[in-house]
Amino acid sequence: MYRYEDIREVHLEVTTRCNAACPQCPRNLSGGAVNPGLPVAELGLDDVRRIFPSELVKRLRKLYACGNYGDPMVAKDTLAIFEHLRGENGVMELGMFTNGSGRTATFWQGLAKVTSYVRFSIDGLEDTNHLYRRGTQWDRIMESVEAFIGAGGRAEWDFIVFKHNEHQLDAARALAEKLGFKRFFLKKTSRFFSAGGVSGRQVLERDGGPSYMIEEPQNPLFRNAAVVRLAQVGQGGGFGDYQAETEISCKAAQHSRLYVSAEGLVFPCCWTGALYPPGKPVGKAQMWDLVRRLPDGKDSLDARRSSIREIVEGPFFQELVPGGWPKRSVKDGRLEPCVRACGGHDTHAAQYGASLL
Q1: pLDDT tens digits for 52-96?
Q2: Is residue 136 part of a domain?
Q3: Chain Cα centroid distance, residue 288
Q4: Model-level pTM?
């Protein structure tokens, strides 16, 4: 199923650290306190050199830095890592996803020289972006964007649509065009889904007290169609049947892609690598059931201890993950992350349409 020789794409999480507290991010508790189960982890340049041998980097067609928990912008060695990777492979697509609220002009100018693109996550305008991107500063974001584009960087804009910002879509697109962004994506979040239906999210302060609500957009065209379909399945009482019966078609295998976390752990994708969901004790996420079956537990997936080849050719990739797909229910071991990301209702793919620029 997975072959080391086939790997052509890498999703890299450089750090679990972030300067923001987005309410639907698993790094924190609904925009408040940091997820208490999340380890503080970060990959340095030496780690990346150790994890990714030159022969692997040279045959990649794509590598992008994003992750489950952190923003690569805040990591100490991000620019050095990108410079190293570009030096190893001058033609691969090399990208980064970020909120953009930080670092110096020199950092962004340096990224412009080595990246294929930087995708800035900006969810509104000056008066609304901070409602989701809590802790970010509009002036800092604009400084970063201008430094990056001014140095020749290819900038792209992700705009997650909520009730509080949907009226600003046209103005944001016009601003993107004025600033020199190359692409502008309306993003229909999948994170309002629950088995019982689509709902809003209570945003919390750091002390756990309520602050305000974020809600799905009122315009149905801005809602995630796959989430709407899944909500209808759940309301009909058939969500368990869907989880048991939907066909799993692994996108990681199809695209010859793997994910490396900020702990240096290798997974097929970021969905299977999401070990620390907020509100759950460490070890309760379903993937831990597989991790605990490995000879050295989590350390068996650490690419600083074993090579990526050894991990990909080992039992986790070859037996444990594929072995979860035929199971008849999540309770019996069918892998919920695989159902969610690669089942019949692909909420992740339904987030994006064509660029509006």
Answers
A1: 999 999 999 999 999 999 999 999 999 999 999 999 999 999 999
A2: yes
A3: 19
A4: 0.95
